[in-house]
């Protein structure tokens, strides 16, 4: 396969002035007619007329009305063209019903829908399918379906057809079409400047009752983007469509966002509080792309973080504003450590702006998205809130309508603030998680912090240069008072010292407050000091972090030395949980333990080969100890979940249910599941029902409830996904592969549906002791199914390959078992480019 390099960028030889598309829909023989005006691009050196096109049957083509016979391959076509503007016309035939890859135009439950990002438009018609070619689109859809949608504003419709015009120039990846017998949940929104916008959420009949929450989230997002970023919506309609078969979460097509139904449909009976929060965030994310992604798009796919990092950053700001800032921050850091750190420190490590790829779909990663957002957060911390706002205004003013680059983005900040960002730019080009080591010194009333940074080599990058790391630090006095307020230290050298004067006693430092940089902090401090921070830190993130590091420390000691759970940890957490003045959601997070995969990395980094079974045992032991230690407190914590007012998925109620659920799982360890069984019986929302069911499964008791749950929700595909997932994620390590395998034999295991496939195999990969069971049966099961799915849906298969990315951490026997599976996948005939690239990189 060919590798594409950032350094090889060159503009397309032509500009596109307008695009007219006509679709004659038919499940296995849709005709697409395109009429496109091209002009020579004065900025281009190469004027070769090459149009991408894959899996297309060319029926006819003409230039300025004269039939032509282009040279076509399975990648596209070339043709001799006039030296001035001309009109290209082509008619192609495509097969939406046979499109199982879910890229291009495909069918899901009888409805037509599209997914074009990154390079799916070339499966719809011949076109320069690259983000820097932008044009207005006019679309006519002919078909018997009741609802026919495309981008922009509706211009005409009648029996069997609809026409749409999108006045905003856009790249082809933002094109969308939907056709089906859908029903809508309508609403309206008036923008700040008085523009009336029609809003719709389109769903399959039967799902109408699950749209209200998404609609509220959309309106909140529209208001927020006006208030916080000064961005208004720019079309007469905004449509959202829910589809069951979708490779990712959702897609920001201009004026026609398409969502995985799991990321938009919600009701208290069928969705958990976490589902609600995620739906709100994804609706916001896709909506925010209208400015950061659509109005300003990317010059090429290497610049993906330009829109994704920024839009993730914006949706995180939105969630913090709607809910709780510390809770959102803690959850994001848990996620970063769980998904991005392993990626950044393993064979798939790549920079936030990669400089080469084989298949771009493999780079929609936690690094591009979440680390990309962290980089923007650091930039904002470094320049300050006002300068950030000024820079963003300049960004929108200067680049509206552009296909921009990271250089453009940074230039805006340099111009708005006068700050030199050349070193900061390394965050975009250097892969790997920096480690920051802390040393302290105390003499004559002066406290000195010496910070040093280093980043391990990553694939293709042996030597790392120092980065600009904003380290937010506050100091606490011995009585817990803050003696120095948060100050952002700018670590730019390999090693640097910072002093704090005028202190009467040696302070306790609170370092990396708010997780001010995506780094690993090495701070050799005592458990007494961590316990002190756990009870006194005024920074809520670091207070949580102190508890987390105590938990990590005690677990690591339990695993390596067989010590008993630390009393400092158990007492410290209990004290926090007793404090009713603290937000229940925050207290629920305090009860969490570091993930088992995270512990495996920590052991590996410390020079010990991790044993998944031992990690699991220690985690279970600590949980049991927690339950015993807090047994008097648990009923009270559980009681907080009993909300008397009607169900609301808001921060307050969901926080209380989170705490109650965490308490219930500990109580289950003491009462064998008695309380969970009665809670299950009376649960009237999915959050409580699923948490009680989870407790019962863990206790080995849930058989009757599992069956009852299935019978109750048999007809709800999203709830049945939960039913599949829960059984695998909570399976005992000895049983995980068996449970997974038997679920693949269940009549409802529609493995071609990405949600269902992920429900089982995503959960399998996340069940650390089960996936890494010494027998290797889980590795084998996953590999067999990846091989089976690849010819059907390479994108979803490739994503799941990352389950193997941490394989070099484990013992030789496990590495051998995994290697056999990686080799087996690699040796599969006709393996997709997507999976070939992933396995090649993972094998290293
Ligand atoms: N931009 C899309 C992701 C497209 C993924 C293509 N493989 C969704 C989002 O980030 O909002
Ligand atoms: Zn996005």
Automatic annotation (TrEMBL):
Sequence ranges assigned to domain Aminopeptidase N-like N-terminal in this UniProt record: 21-174
GO molecular function, one term: alanyl aminopeptidase activity
Cleaved signal peptide residues: none
Residue span(s) of domain Peptidase M1 alanyl aminopeptidase Ig-like fold: 432-523
SUPFAM superfamilies xref list: Leukotriene A4 hydrolase N-terminal domain, Metalloproteases ('zincins'), catalytic domain
Recorded coiled-coil stretches: none
Gene3D superfamilies registered for this protein in UniProt: 2.60.40.1840, 3.30.2010.30, Neutral Protease Domain 2, Peptidase M1, alanyl aminopeptidase, C-terminal domain, tricorn interacting facor f3 domain
Domain Peptidase M1 membrane alanine aminopeptidase intervals: 213-427
GO terms (BP aspect): proteolysis
UniProt keywords, alphabetically: Aminopeptidase, Hydrolase, Metal-binding, Metalloprotease, Protease, Zinc
Enzyme Commission designation: 3.4.11.2
Cofactor dependency: Zn(2+)
Pfam families, per database record: DUF3458, DUF3458_C, Peptidase_M1, Peptidase_M1_N
Catalytic activity, reaction form: Release of an N-terminal amino acid, Xaa-|-Yaa- from a peptide, amide or arylamide. Xaa is preferably Ala, but may be most amino acids including Pro (slow action). When a terminal hydrophobic residue is followed by a prolyl residue, the two may be released as an intact Xaa-Pro dipeptide
Domain of life the protein comes from: Bacteria
Residue ranges of domain Peptidase M1 alanyl aminopeptidase C-terminal in the record: 528-842
Stated family: Belongs to the peptidase M1 family.
The protein's name in its UniProt record: Aminopeptidase N
Source organism of the structure: Falsiruegeria litorea R37
């Amino acid at each position: 396969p060919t590798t594409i390099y950032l350094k090889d960028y060159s503009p397309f030889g032509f500009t596109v002035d307008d695009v007219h598309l006509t679709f004659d829909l038919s499940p296995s023989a849709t005709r697409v007619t395109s009429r496109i005006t091209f002009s020579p691009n004065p900025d281009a050196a190469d004027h070769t007329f090459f149009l991408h096109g894959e899996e297309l049957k060319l029926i006819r083509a003409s230039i300025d009305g004269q039939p032509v016979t282009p040279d076509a391959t399975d990648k596209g076509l070339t043709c001799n063209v006039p030296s001035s503007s001309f009109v290209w016309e082509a008619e192609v035939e495509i097969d939406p019903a046979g499109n199982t890859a879910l890229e291009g135009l495909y069918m899901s439950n009888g409805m037509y829908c599209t997914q074009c990002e990154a390079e799916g438009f070339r499966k719809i018609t011949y076109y320069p399918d690259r983000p820097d070619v932008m044009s207005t689109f006019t679309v006519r859809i002919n078909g018997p379906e009741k609802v026919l949608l495309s981008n922009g504003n509706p211009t005409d419709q009648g029996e069997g057809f609809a026409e749409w015009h999108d006045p905003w120039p856009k790249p082809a990846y933002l094109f969308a079409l939907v056709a089906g017998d859908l029903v809508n949940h309508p609403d309206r929104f008036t923008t700040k400047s008085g523009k009336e916008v029609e809003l719709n959420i389109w769903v399959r009949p039967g799902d109408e009752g699950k749209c209200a929450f998404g609609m509220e989230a959309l309106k909140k997002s529209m208001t927020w983007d006006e208030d916080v970023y000064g961005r208004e919506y720019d079309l007469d309609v905004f449509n959202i469509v829910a589809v069951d078969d979708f490779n990712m979460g959702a897609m920001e097509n201009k004026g026609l966002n398409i969502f995985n139904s799991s990321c938009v449909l919600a009701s208290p009976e069928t969705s958990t509080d976490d589902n609600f929060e995620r739906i709100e965030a994804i609706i916001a994310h896709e909506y925010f792309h209208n400015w950061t992604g659509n109005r300003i798009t990317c010059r090429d796919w290497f610049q993906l973080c330009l829109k994704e990092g920024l839009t993730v950053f914006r949706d995180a700001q939105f969630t913090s504003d709607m809910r709780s800032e510390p809770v959102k921050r803690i959850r994001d850091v848990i996620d970063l450590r769980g998904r991005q750190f392993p990626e950044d420190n393993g064979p798939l490590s790549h920079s936030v702006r990669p400089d080469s790829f084989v298949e771009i779909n493999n780079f929609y990663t936690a690094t591009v998205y979440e680390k990309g957002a962290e980089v923007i957060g650091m930039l904002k911390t470094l320049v300050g809130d006002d300068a950030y706002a000024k820079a963003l205004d300049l960004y929108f003013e200067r680049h509206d309508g552009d296909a921009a680059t990271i250089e453009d983005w940074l230039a805006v900040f340099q111009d708005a603030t006068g700050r030199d960002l050349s070193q900061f730019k390394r965050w975009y080009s250097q892969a790997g998680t920096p480690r920051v080591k802390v040393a302290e010194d105390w003499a004559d009333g002066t406290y000195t912090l010496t910070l040093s940074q280093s980043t391990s080599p990553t694939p293709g990058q042996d030597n790392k240069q120092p980065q600009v790391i904003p380290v937010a630090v506050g100091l606490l006095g011995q009585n817990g008072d803050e003696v120095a307020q948060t100050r952002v230290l700018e670590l730019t050298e390999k090693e640097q010292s910072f002093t704090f004067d005028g202190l009467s006693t040696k302070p306790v430092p609170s370092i990396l407050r708010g997780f001010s940089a995506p780094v690993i902090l090495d701070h050799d401090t005592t458990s007494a000091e961590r316990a002190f921070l756990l009870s006194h830190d005024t920074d809520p993130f670091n207070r949580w972090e102190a508890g987390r590091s105590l938990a990590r420390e005690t677990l690591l000691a339990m695993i390596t030395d067989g010590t008993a759970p630390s009393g400092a940890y158990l007492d410290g957490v209990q004290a926090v949980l007793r404090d009713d003045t603290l937000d229940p959601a925050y207290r629920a997070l305090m009860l969490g333990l570091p993930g088992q995969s995270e512990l495996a990395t920590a052991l590996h980094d410390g020079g010990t080969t991790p044993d998944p079974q031992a990690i699991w045992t220690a985690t279970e032991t600590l949980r049991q100890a927690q339950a015993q230690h807090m047994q008097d407190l648990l009923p009270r914590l559980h009681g907080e979940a009993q909300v008397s007012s009607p169900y609301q998925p808001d921060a307050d109620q969901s926080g209380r249910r989170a705490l109650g659920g965490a308490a219930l799982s500990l109580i289950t360890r003491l009462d064998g599941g008695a309380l969970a069984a009665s809670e299950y019986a009376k649960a009237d929302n999915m959050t409580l029902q699923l948490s009680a069911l989870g407790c019962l499964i863990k206790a080995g008791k849930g058989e009757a409830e599992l069956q009852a749950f299935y019978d109750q929700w048999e007809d709800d595909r999203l709830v049945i996904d939960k039913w599949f997932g829960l059984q695998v994620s909570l399976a005992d390590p000895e049983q995980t592969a068996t449970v997974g395998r038997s679920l693949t034999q269940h009549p409802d295991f529609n493995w071609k549906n990405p949600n269902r496939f992920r429900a089982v195999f995503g959960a399998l990969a996340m069940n650390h002791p089960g996936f890494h069971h010494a027998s290797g049966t889980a590795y084998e099961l996953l590999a067999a199914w990846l091989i089976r799915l690849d010819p059907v849906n390479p994108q979803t298969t490739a994503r799941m390959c990352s389950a193997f990315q941490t394989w070099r951490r484990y013992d030789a026997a496990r590495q051998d078992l995994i290697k056999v599976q990686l080799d087996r996948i690699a040796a599969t005939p006709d393996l997709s480019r997507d999976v070939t690239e992933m396995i090649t990189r993972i094998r290293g």
